Amino acid sequence: MKRIYRRYLDGCSLAQIKRELEADGVPAASGIRGWTYQVVRNILANERYIGDALLQKTYTTDCISKTVKKNQGDRPMVYVEGNHPAIVSKAMFYQVREEMARRSSKRKVMQKTGKTEQGKYSAKYALSELLVCGECGTPYKRCTWARNGKKRTVWRCVSRLEFGTKYCHDSPSMDEDKLHRAILEGINEFVQAGQGLGDELLNLASIVQQGGSADGIDPLTLRNRLDALTAQQAELLDKVLEDMENEELNAQLKAIMEEKQAILGRLGAIQQDEEQRAGQEARLRELAEWLKQQKSEFAEYDDSITRRYVERITVVDAETVLIKFRYTDVEIDRAVKK
Questions:
Q1: Cα-only R_g, the chain
Q2: Which end of the chain is more exposed for a tag (fewer CB within 10 A), N or C?
Protein backbone atom coordinates (compact mmCIF):
# COMPACT_ATOMS: atom_id res chain seq x y z
CA MET A 1 0.00 0.00 0.00
CA LYS A 2 2.88 2.37 0.74
CA ARG A 3 3.99 1.90 -2.84
CA ILE A 4 0.64 3.16 -4.16
CA TYR A 5 0.83 6.28 -1.98
CA ARG A 6 4.45 6.96 -2.90
CA ARG A 7 3.89 6.55 -6.64
CA TYR A 8 0.90 8.91 -6.51
CA LEU A 9 3.03 11.53 -4.78
CA ASP A 10 5.72 10.93 -7.42
CA GLY A 11 3.21 12.25 -9.95
CA CYS A 12 1.81 9.00 -11.32
CA SER A 13 -1.79 8.87 -12.51
CA LEU A 14 -4.23 6.23 -11.30
CA ALA A 15 -3.85 4.52 -14.69
CA GLN A 16 -0.06 4.37 -14.36
CA ILE A 17 -0.24 2.92 -10.85
CA LYS A 18 -2.77 0.31 -12.02
CA ARG A 19 -0.50 -0.74 -14.92
CA GLU A 20 2.58 -0.96 -12.67
CA LEU A 21 0.79 -3.17 -10.14
CA GLU A 22 -0.49 -5.46 -12.87
CA ALA A 23 2.90 -5.63 -14.59
CA ASP A 24 4.62 -6.64 -11.33
CA GLY A 25 1.94 -9.21 -10.51
CA VAL A 26 0.92 -7.52 -7.26
CA PRO A 27 -2.25 -9.26 -6.03
CA ALA A 28 -5.34 -7.21 -5.23
CA ALA A 29 -7.11 -7.62 -1.91
CA SER A 30 -9.27 -10.68 -1.36
CA GLY A 31 -12.76 -10.24 -2.75
CA ILE A 32 -11.55 -7.90 -5.51
CA ARG A 33 -11.22 -9.34 -9.02
CA GLY A 34 -8.33 -7.14 -10.05
CA TRP A 35 -6.82 -3.66 -10.07
CA THR A 36 -9.05 -0.85 -11.38
CA TYR A 37 -8.80 2.95 -11.23
CA GLN A 38 -11.51 3.00 -8.56
CA VAL A 39 -9.74 0.40 -6.40
CA VAL A 40 -6.54 2.48 -6.48
CA ARG A 41 -8.49 5.67 -5.69
CA ASN A 42 -10.30 4.00 -2.79
CA ILE A 43 -7.00 2.90 -1.26
CA LEU A 44 -5.63 6.45 -1.50
CA ALA A 45 -8.74 7.92 0.17
CA ASN A 46 -9.39 5.29 2.85
CA GLU A 47 -8.60 6.42 6.41
CA ARG A 48 -8.18 2.78 7.51
CA TYR A 49 -4.65 2.79 6.11
CA ILE A 50 -3.59 5.35 8.77
CA GLY A 51 -5.11 3.28 11.58
CA ASP A 52 -8.37 5.27 11.86
CA ALA A 53 -11.93 4.19 11.20
CA LEU A 54 -15.06 6.05 10.12
CA LEU A 55 -17.92 3.96 11.47
CA GLN A 56 -21.40 3.65 9.97
CA LYS A 57 -20.55 4.65 6.40
CA THR A 58 -23.47 2.38 5.52
CA TYR A 59 -26.46 1.16 7.49
CA THR A 60 -29.25 -1.41 7.23
CA THR A 61 -32.60 0.25 6.60
CA ASP A 62 -34.65 -2.34 8.48
CA CYS A 63 -34.37 -5.82 9.93
CA ILE A 64 -36.83 -7.32 7.44
CA SER A 65 -35.49 -6.31 4.02
CA LYS A 66 -31.93 -5.88 5.34
CA THR A 67 -31.25 -3.34 2.59
CA VAL A 68 -27.83 -1.73 3.00
CA LYS A 69 -27.79 1.98 2.21
CA LYS A 70 -24.93 4.48 1.95
CA ASN A 71 -25.05 6.95 4.83
CA GLN A 72 -25.57 10.40 3.30
CA GLY A 73 -26.00 12.10 6.67
CA ASP A 74 -29.13 10.10 7.57
CA ARG A 75 -27.37 8.56 10.58
CA PRO A 76 -24.51 9.87 12.76
CA MET A 77 -21.00 8.73 11.82
CA VAL A 78 -18.23 8.17 14.34
CA TYR A 79 -14.56 8.80 13.53
CA VAL A 80 -12.23 6.66 15.67
CA GLU A 81 -8.51 7.56 15.73
CA GLY A 82 -5.95 4.84 16.40
CA ASN A 83 -8.50 2.09 15.88
CA HIS A 84 -5.87 -0.34 14.54
CA PRO A 85 -2.18 -0.37 13.45
CA ALA A 86 -1.39 2.05 10.62
CA ILE A 87 0.07 0.99 7.27
CA VAL A 88 1.00 4.47 6.00
CA SER A 89 1.83 7.59 7.99
CA LYS A 90 -0.73 10.33 8.50
CA ALA A 91 1.71 12.77 6.91
CA MET A 92 1.77 10.76 3.68
CA PHE A 93 -2.02 10.27 3.77
CA TYR A 94 -2.66 13.99 4.09
CA GLN A 95 -0.13 14.77 1.35
CA VAL A 96 -2.08 12.46 -0.95
CA ARG A 97 -5.37 14.16 -0.04
CA GLU A 98 -3.81 17.52 -0.76
CA GLU A 99 -2.55 16.30 -4.15
CA MET A 100 -5.91 14.72 -5.02
CA ALA A 101 -7.66 18.02 -4.29
CA ARG A 102 -5.11 19.89 -6.42
CA ARG A 103 -5.57 17.57 -9.39
CA SER A 104 -9.37 17.59 -9.20
CA SER A 105 -9.46 21.41 -9.09
CA LYS A 106 -7.70 21.82 -12.44
CA ARG A 107 -9.57 23.71 -15.14
CA LYS A 108 -8.83 24.18 -18.81
CA VAL A 109 -7.16 27.53 -19.25
CA MET A 110 -7.79 28.03 -22.95
CA GLN A 111 -10.05 26.42 -25.51
CA LYS A 112 -11.70 27.73 -28.65
CA THR A 113 -15.16 26.45 -27.70
CA GLY A 114 -15.32 28.82 -24.74
CA LYS A 115 -16.91 26.13 -22.56
CA THR A 116 -15.87 25.62 -18.95
CA GLU A 117 -14.71 22.03 -18.50
CA GLN A 118 -12.76 19.98 -16.02
CA GLY A 119 -9.06 20.15 -16.80
CA LYS A 120 -7.08 16.95 -17.12
CA TYR A 121 -4.12 16.12 -14.92
CA SER A 122 -1.09 15.12 -16.98
CA ALA A 123 1.19 12.51 -15.43
CA LYS A 124 3.22 12.03 -18.61
CA TYR A 125 5.29 15.22 -18.55
CA ALA A 126 6.08 17.30 -15.48
CA LEU A 127 6.30 20.48 -17.53
CA SER A 128 2.64 20.14 -18.58
CA GLU A 129 1.84 20.99 -14.97
CA LEU A 130 4.54 23.57 -14.32
CA LEU A 131 5.61 25.51 -17.42
CA VAL A 132 3.72 28.78 -17.99
CA CYS A 133 4.00 31.76 -20.31
CA GLY A 134 5.51 34.87 -18.73
CA GLU A 135 3.47 37.15 -21.00
CA CYS A 136 -0.09 35.78 -20.64
CA GLY A 137 0.17 33.17 -17.83
CA THR A 138 -1.14 30.35 -20.03
CA PRO A 139 0.43 26.87 -19.66
CA TYR A 140 2.84 25.57 -22.27
CA LYS A 141 2.14 22.43 -24.28
CA ARG A 142 4.53 19.82 -25.68
CA CYS A 143 4.62 19.69 -29.50
CA THR A 144 6.60 17.72 -32.06
CA TRP A 145 7.77 19.46 -35.21
CA ALA A 146 8.77 17.44 -38.26
CA ARG A 147 10.77 18.93 -41.13
CA ASN A 148 12.81 17.20 -43.85
CA GLY A 149 12.41 13.87 -42.08
CA LYS A 150 13.77 15.23 -38.79
CA LYS A 151 11.73 15.58 -35.61
CA ARG A 152 12.17 18.28 -32.98
CA THR A 153 10.35 18.50 -29.65
CA VAL A 154 9.39 21.96 -28.42
CA TRP A 155 7.07 23.55 -25.84
CA ARG A 156 4.64 26.26 -26.95
CA CYS A 157 2.18 28.60 -25.23
CA VAL A 158 -1.36 27.16 -25.52
CA SER A 159 -2.79 30.63 -26.17
CA ARG A 160 -0.45 31.09 -29.16
CA LEU A 161 -1.38 27.63 -30.46
CA GLU A 162 -5.13 28.26 -30.26
CA PHE A 163 -5.44 31.98 -31.01
CA GLY A 164 -2.20 32.99 -32.72
CA THR A 165 -1.03 36.45 -31.60
CA LYS A 166 -4.52 37.67 -30.66
CA TYR A 167 -3.90 37.51 -26.89
CA CYS A 168 -0.22 36.58 -26.56
CA HIS A 169 2.18 38.36 -28.90
CA ASP A 170 5.76 37.39 -28.09
CA SER A 171 5.80 34.02 -26.26
CA PRO A 172 8.70 31.95 -27.67
CA SER A 173 8.79 28.27 -28.57
CA MET A 174 11.21 26.44 -26.26
CA ASP A 175 13.38 23.53 -27.36
CA GLU A 176 12.81 20.65 -24.89
CA ASP A 177 16.46 19.57 -24.55
CA LYS A 178 17.65 23.12 -23.86
CA LEU A 179 14.75 23.68 -21.46
CA HIS A 180 15.65 20.52 -19.54
CA ARG A 181 19.28 21.60 -19.22
CA ALA A 182 18.28 25.02 -17.86
CA ILE A 183 15.94 23.44 -15.28
CA LEU A 184 18.60 20.93 -14.27
CA GLU A 185 21.07 23.78 -13.67
CA GLY A 186 18.48 25.61 -11.56
CA ILE A 187 17.75 22.52 -9.43
CA ASN A 188 21.46 21.93 -8.87
CA GLU A 189 21.92 25.55 -7.80
CA PHE A 190 18.99 25.09 -5.38
CA VAL A 191 20.62 21.93 -3.98
CA GLN A 192 23.95 23.70 -3.47
CA ALA A 193 22.25 26.31 -1.27
CA GLY A 194 20.22 23.66 0.51
CA GLN A 195 21.91 23.13 3.89
CA GLY A 196 20.98 26.45 5.48
CA LEU A 197 17.63 26.47 3.72
CA GLY A 198 16.86 23.01 5.11
CA ASP A 199 17.11 24.28 8.70
CA GLU A 200 14.88 27.22 7.81
CA LEU A 201 12.25 24.86 6.35
CA LEU A 202 12.31 22.67 9.48
CA ASN A 203 11.66 25.74 11.64
CA LEU A 204 8.76 26.69 9.39
CA ALA A 205 7.38 23.14 9.63
CA SER A 206 7.36 23.41 13.43
CA ILE A 207 5.43 26.69 13.23
CA VAL A 208 2.88 25.09 10.88
CA GLN A 209 2.49 22.12 13.23
CA GLN A 210 1.68 24.41 16.16
CA GLY A 211 -1.07 26.24 14.28
CA GLY A 212 -4.51 26.47 15.89
CA SER A 213 -7.87 25.19 14.70
CA ALA A 214 -9.83 26.75 11.85
CA ASP A 215 -11.77 29.18 14.09
CA GLY A 216 -9.76 29.05 17.32
CA ILE A 217 -12.24 26.78 19.12
CA ASP A 218 -11.16 23.53 20.75
CA PRO A 219 -12.68 20.60 18.80
CA LEU A 220 -13.21 18.74 22.08
CA THR A 221 -15.52 21.53 23.28
CA LEU A 222 -17.56 21.22 20.09
CA ARG A 223 -17.77 17.44 20.39
CA ASN A 224 -18.89 17.67 24.01
CA ARG A 225 -21.58 20.14 22.99
CA LEU A 226 -22.62 17.80 20.17
CA ASP A 227 -22.97 14.90 22.64
CA ALA A 228 -25.08 17.07 24.96
CA LEU A 229 -27.34 18.12 22.08
CA THR A 230 -27.75 14.50 20.97
CA ALA A 231 -28.89 13.56 24.48
CA GLN A 232 -31.34 16.49 24.54
CA GLN A 233 -32.62 15.51 21.12
CA ALA A 234 -33.34 11.94 22.23
CA GLU A 235 -35.19 13.16 25.32
CA LEU A 236 -37.16 15.73 23.32
CA LEU A 237 -38.12 13.20 20.67
CA ASP A 238 -39.92 11.11 23.27
CA LYS A 239 -41.96 14.15 24.25
CA VAL A 240 -42.71 15.07 20.64
CA LEU A 241 -43.98 11.56 19.94
CA GLU A 242 -46.42 11.94 22.79
CA ASP A 243 -47.62 15.34 21.60
CA MET A 244 -47.00 15.68 17.85
CA GLU A 245 -48.93 18.97 17.51
CA ASN A 246 -47.01 20.84 20.23
CA GLU A 247 -45.45 23.78 18.38
CA GLU A 248 -43.07 24.68 21.20
CA LEU A 249 -41.60 21.18 21.37
CA ASN A 250 -41.22 21.03 17.59
CA ALA A 251 -39.50 24.43 17.58
CA GLN A 252 -37.06 23.24 20.28
CA LEU A 253 -36.32 20.07 18.31
CA LYS A 254 -35.70 22.09 15.14
CA ALA A 255 -33.33 24.45 16.98
CA ILE A 256 -31.33 21.50 18.36
CA MET A 257 -31.02 19.91 14.93
CA GLU A 258 -29.88 23.19 13.36
CA GLU A 259 -27.24 23.71 16.06
CA LYS A 260 -26.01 20.15 15.56
CA GLN A 261 -25.64 20.75 11.82
CA ALA A 262 -23.72 23.97 12.48
CA ILE A 263 -21.35 22.18 14.87
CA LEU A 264 -20.79 19.36 12.40
CA GLY A 265 -19.91 21.96 9.78
CA ARG A 266 -17.38 23.61 12.09
CA LEU A 267 -15.85 20.25 13.01
CA GLY A 268 -15.54 19.46 9.32
CA ALA A 269 -13.77 22.75 8.70
CA ILE A 270 -11.40 22.10 11.61
CA GLN A 271 -10.60 18.62 10.31
CA GLN A 272 -9.93 19.99 6.83
CA ASP A 273 -7.67 22.67 8.31
CA GLU A 274 -5.77 20.03 10.30
CA GLU A 275 -5.35 17.85 7.21
CA GLN A 276 -4.02 20.75 5.14
CA ARG A 277 -1.65 21.76 7.94
CA ALA A 278 -0.41 18.17 8.34
CA GLY A 279 0.15 17.87 4.58
CA GLN A 280 2.04 21.17 4.43
CA GLU A 281 4.19 20.26 7.44
CA ALA A 282 5.04 16.87 5.93
CA ARG A 283 6.06 18.42 2.62
CA LEU A 284 8.22 21.04 4.32
CA ARG A 285 10.03 18.36 6.34
CA GLU A 286 10.41 16.17 3.28
CA LEU A 287 11.93 19.01 1.25
CA ALA A 288 14.25 19.93 4.15
CA GLU A 289 15.47 16.34 4.52
CA TRP A 290 15.91 15.98 0.77
CA LEU A 291 18.08 19.11 0.66
CA LYS A 292 20.20 17.90 3.57
CA GLN A 293 20.75 14.49 1.98
CA GLN A 294 21.85 15.76 -1.44
CA LYS A 295 25.65 15.63 -1.41
CA SER A 296 26.20 15.98 -5.15
CA GLU A 297 24.60 17.52 -8.19
CA PHE A 298 22.22 15.70 -10.51
CA ALA A 299 23.79 14.62 -13.77
CA GLU A 300 20.56 14.33 -15.77
CA TYR A 301 17.17 16.01 -15.89
CA ASP A 302 14.51 13.99 -14.03
CA ASP A 303 10.77 14.64 -14.42
CA SER A 304 9.99 13.15 -10.99
CA ILE A 305 12.44 15.48 -9.19
CA THR A 306 11.08 18.49 -11.07
CA ARG A 307 7.47 17.58 -10.30
CA ARG A 308 8.13 17.01 -6.61
CA TYR A 309 10.20 20.09 -5.77
CA VAL A 310 9.41 22.76 -8.38
CA GLU A 311 6.24 24.83 -8.04
CA ARG A 312 6.32 26.79 -11.29
CA ILE A 313 8.59 27.52 -14.26
CA THR A 314 7.93 30.79 -16.07
CA VAL A 315 9.17 31.42 -19.59
CA VAL A 316 10.46 34.99 -19.32
CA ASP A 317 11.76 35.17 -22.90
CA ALA A 318 13.46 32.95 -25.49
CA GLU A 319 16.66 32.86 -23.43
CA THR A 320 15.46 32.86 -19.80
CA VAL A 321 13.24 30.80 -17.48
CA LEU A 322 12.36 31.61 -13.86
CA ILE A 323 12.14 28.57 -11.56
CA LYS A 324 10.06 28.85 -8.36
CA PHE A 325 10.63 26.10 -5.77
CA ARG A 326 7.88 24.67 -3.60
CA TYR A 327 7.32 25.92 -0.02
CA THR A 328 10.08 28.51 -0.27
CA ASP A 329 10.58 32.06 -1.51
CA VAL A 330 13.45 30.85 -3.68
CA GLU A 331 13.25 31.78 -7.38
CA ILE A 332 16.17 31.08 -9.70
CA ASP A 333 16.46 32.41 -13.24
CA ARG A 334 18.45 30.33 -15.68
CA ALA A 335 19.62 30.98 -19.21
CA VAL A 336 18.29 28.67 -21.91
CA LYS A 337 21.49 28.16 -23.84
CA LYS A 338 21.53 27.81 -27.61
A1: 26
A2: C
Contact 321, 336 (CB under 8 A): yes
* Sign, CA torsion 241/242/246/248: negative
- Euclidean distance between CA atoms 216 and 210, whole angstroms: 12
- Write out the E strands in 158-217: 174-175
pTM metric for this prediction:
0.62
C-beta atoms surrounding 94 within 10 Å: 21
Q: Which residues pair with 133 in a beta bridge?
A: 315
Distance CA 194, CA 167 (A): 39
More confident residue, 259 or 218: 259
pLDDT per residue over 142-190, tens digit each? Answer: 999 888 888 899 999 999 888 888 889 889 999 999 999 999 999 998 8
Residue 2: Cβ within 10 Å count:
11
33: left (phi over 0), alpha (psi -120 to 50) or beta: alpha
Task: Taking each helix axis as running N to C, give the angle between helix 176-192 and helix 194-209, from 0 to 180 degrees, rounded to the nearest 10.
Answer: 80
Alpha-carbon distance 228 to 14, whole Å? 43
Q: Identify whether the C-beta of residue 109 lies closer than 8 Å to the C-beta of residue 128.
A: no
Q: Give ∠ CA 238-241-242 in degrees, rounded to 5.
A: 90
> pLDDT for 240-292, tens place per residue?
888 888 888 888 888 888 888 888 878 777 777 777 777 777 777 777 777 77
Q: In DSSP terms, which residues pair with 331 in a beta bridge?
A: 324
